[in-house]
Write a structure and sequence with these properties.
alpha+beta; 4-stranded antiparallel sheet; 32% helix
Length: 130
């Protein structure tokens, strides 16, 4: 029987330069370990908004690099992709932390906390302009 936590998908990772990709890990994804608890060392990447050379060894359908999944991608490679594209936002950072360290049971990123973080980031950017 499949776990009900499969419905708790990780949010898309958005990089500073606009590159976006889905990174998923659960008992129905191409990941290792293939469970809902993690931490995971290989994950499934899906539907990036642009072809990414670093991921192509893992592509399911190379003729459609933005409309397919990438199976069993090492987490360390995901980190390289994120770094190449200038880093990620708070949600992406949180997703990677959960994947690497805590597992899905600790997925608690609430909308209220995200909004508060975004507001503080906005305030910081305004102060930096002064």
């Amino acid at each position: 029987m499949r776990s009900t936590t499969i419905n708790k998908l990780f949010k898309w990772i958005t990089c500073a330069d606009g590159f976006v990709m889905s990174v998923q890990a659960h008992d129905g994804a191409y990941c290792e370990p293939r469970d809902d608890r993690g931490p995971w060392y290989e994950v499934e990447v899906g539907y990036p908004n642009a072809e990414e050379f670093l991921l192509m060894d893992y592509v399911e359908d190379a003729s459609r690099p933005t409309d397919t999944v990438y199976a069993y991608v090492p987490v360390s490679l995901i980190e390289q992709v994120i770094e190449k594209h200038g880093g990620t936002n708070a949600e992406g950072t949180h997703t990677m932390t959960v994947i690497k360290e805590r597992g899905r049971d600790q997925l608690w990123w609430s909308a209220k906390l995200q909004a508060a973080f975004n507001e503080k980031q906005k305030e910081l950017r305004e102060l930096q302009k002064l």
